[in-house]
Amino acid sequence: MHPAAAATTTSKLDLTDVTICAIDSVNVLATAAALGRSIRSCAFGDAILFSHEQADGPFRCVKIAPVGSAAAYSEFLYKHMPRLIATPFVLVVQWDGFVIDPPAWRPDFRQYDYIGAPWPFVSDGLSVGNGGFSLQSQELLRAMLDDRFLLRKDVNSDWQVCRDFRTQLESEFGLRFASEVVAERFSYETLRVREFTDARPPTFGFHGMGNMWRYVDDAEMIAMADRLSPHVFASHHYANLLVTYFLLGRYKTFAALYARLKMHLADDTAALIRKVVGETNHDVAALFAGLGERLITRPGRAWMLAWDLKRARRDALVRLAGVPGSV
């Protein structure tokens, strides 16, 4: 076992045949925190942060050239990292996903070469799955070194591996992708708007900023937002989180995160929220944005908006009940 994972394993889930790793040059502190949360409850065979920056945590840092794009991330993940992993499996995590329920781990996860949260918007049998929190075998990583698997720069690598390359990986390399049923026990990511605030069945991990409210307290979430790369604020994932805090009635956190959104996206915040609630609900998006503006311009006086907030929340819950999942 590598020294990074050499802590006492008595009360931890034994995953010494798994390396947990993350690749990041943009949200390094948040990524280090995600690794730390996962390592806290699992005894991995190795733990690695691949980054151009050093970070403190119960893992070793391997310095690489800056990874500043999704294409560069994919290239390192599948064309360089496989040669640096010694264990039979690797658990790939990102800053917005980590282990949440070690008892949900199932030994039969090791029967598969790739497991990631299913994409609920895919219905053709190739829905597994999301790479932001994924278990991948050494065999799959080595197969992806093959020059025939040319990674496109305009498509996420998980989509390419699990859809574009899957048939070839299965037929020529004998690799196995988990079924949707198995993957649902492993992790989750994309939810329908009406499911944003629902309780979730046990899963080993999760991915997606919009789901972080379940596992990160409000004060820490606000502090984390202050350290995130500006591009995060223009993503539908951030909008997911905003909408969720409003629907939960946690208006103080909603206001704090809305204020940070305004710092980075001063123009049409309602347009970003429409990516989540749907274009047909433009008035709901405008309502969220309008209340956000009123909350941040009246700090400490949110009580004056109490009735408006409660009515808006009630109406939004009804209107959004039929909105399909955000992707």
Question: What do these coordinates show?
Answer:
With 327 residues, the chain is of the alpha/beta class. The chain has two domains: 3-186, Spore Coat Polysaccharide Biosynthesis Protein SpsA, Chain A; 231-322, no CATH class. The protein contains twelve helices and six strands. The protein has helices at 28-39, 70-79, 138-143, 157-164, 166-173, 180-186, 218-225, 236-247, 251-264, 269-277, 282-297, 306-319, and strands spanning 13-23, 42-51, 60-63, 89-93, 114-116, 133-137. Strands 3-2-1-4-6-5 form a six-stranded mixed beta sheet. Helix 8 packs antiparallel against helix 9, helix 8 packs across helix 10 and helix 10 (269-277) packs across helix 11. It is globular and about 60 Å long.
Q: What's the number of structural domains?
A: 2
Mean pLDDT: 91
Residue runs with pLDDT of under 50 for 5 or more positions: 1-9
- How far apart the termini lie comes to 38 Å
Rg is 20 Å
What is the strand arrangement across the widest sheet? 3-2-1-4-6-5
What is the CATH architecture assignment of the largest domain? Alpha-Beta Complex
> How many strands, which pairing sense, and closed or not: the largest β-sheet?
6 strands, mixed
Element order: H for helix, E for strand: EHEEHEEEHHHHHHHHHH
Number of strands: 6
The first-level CATH class of the largest domain is given as: Alpha Beta
- Indicate the overall shape: globular
Q: Could you please say which CATH topology of the largest domain applies here?
A: Spore Coat Polysaccharide Biosynthesis Protein SpsA, Chain A
Count of DSSP-assigned helices: 12
Strand content: 5-15%
Helix share bin: 25-40%
Class of secondary structure makeup: alpha/beta
